[in-house]
């Protein structure tokens, strides 16, 4: 016999917690996309400034690009395991999972 048949409210609570966790992850990725979009705007202006005929830099400046931004975002996701664990622990313990 399934646990959820004995205690149906438990399954509903877990379903709600999973939904909240997915919502948290979606918000996190929305934030990463916003960071990437902001970098895209800034990089566009920096590239125009550096490439301008009036620029005093004459190609001496190497700008980062969007690949660098996404690599850094991936680094944050992969390397900050302690942060991920704390987020999940807070989620699990605060929500009573």
Describe this structure in words.
- The protein is mostly helical.
- The chain has one domain (3-95).
- The chain is 79% helix and 0% strand.
- The protein is elongated.
- The two termini are 21 Å apart.
In brief, what are we looking at here?
With 97 residues, the chain is an all-alpha fold. It has helices at residues 3-6, 8-51, 66-79, 81-95.
Q: What percentage of residues falls in helices of 4 or more residues?
A: over 70%
Residue stretches low in confidence (pLDDT < 50, at least 5 long) are none
Count of individual beta strands: 0
- Largest sheet data: none
Instruction: Output the number of helix runs.
Output: 4
From the alpha carbons, calculate the radius of gyration and give it in angstroms. 22 Å
Average predicted local confidence, pLDDT: 77
- N-to-C series of helices and strands: HHHH
Strand content is under 5%
Q: Helices and strands: which structural class?
A: mainly alpha
Tell the overall outline.
Answer: elongated
Number of domains: 1
Gap from first CA to last CA: 21 Å
Write the layout of secondary structure elements.
Elements: H1 3-6, H2 8-51, H3 66-79, H4 81-95
Helix pairs in contact: 2-3
Structure keywords:
mainly alpha, 97 residues
């Amino acid at each position: 016999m399934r646990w959820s048949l004995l205690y149906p409210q438990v399954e509903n609570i877990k379903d709600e917690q999973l939904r909240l966790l997915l919502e948290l992850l979606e918000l996190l990725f929305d934030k990463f996309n916003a960071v990437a979009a902001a970098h895209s705007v800034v990089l566009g202006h920096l590239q125009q400034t550096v490439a301008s005929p009036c620029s005093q830099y004459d190609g001496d400046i190497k700008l980062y690009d969007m690949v660098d931004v996404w690599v850094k975002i991936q680094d944050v996701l992969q390397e900050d395991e302690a942060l991920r664990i704390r987020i999940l622990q807070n989620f699990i313990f605060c929500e009573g999972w």
